[in-house]
Amino acid sequence: SPVYYASPNGTMISFMDRLFYAGSQYFAYKPGACVAVARRGGTTASYDVLNKYLGISNMVQIGANYWNQVHGRLPGEAAQDLEGMQTMRILGQNMAWMLKLIENGKSSGIEHPTPEPKQMFNFIR
After folding, report:
1. Separation of first and last alpha carbons in the chain
2. Are 34 and 10 in contact (CB under 8 A)?
3. How many angstroms separate the Cα of 103 from the Cα of each of 31, 97, 109?
4. What is the CA 56 to chain-centroid distance, rounded?
5. Distance CA 75, CA 92 (A)
6. pLDDT tens for each residue of 4-55
């Protein structure tokens, strides 16, 4: 997500809210990674917001050697963020590794956990 005003842009949040509300069961037990890009600040707050979608949907969250963020405003500037680009390369390697582990697990007969029925709590009694 691009970062606007220290958070993901509104269109991204609306999209993610609807996508995960309507279809989170389709994302369960799949690997995912979030990346935030900003000119300067707000990447960690945006990264946190986006990661919550993965965490609430039984997804496997893929990380790297640092938070998945890159800095740059204009086209080509992010490529100059050497630390950010290294983080993205490591993220890609980690994602590829996890996909291989999942595939090998399936061929070995290892299945994902059986989901339990959702328990809802109401604070108003």
Report:
1. 40
2. no
3. 12, 10, 10
4. 11
5. 21
6. 888 998 999 999 999 999 998 999 999 999 999 999 889 999 999 999 999 9
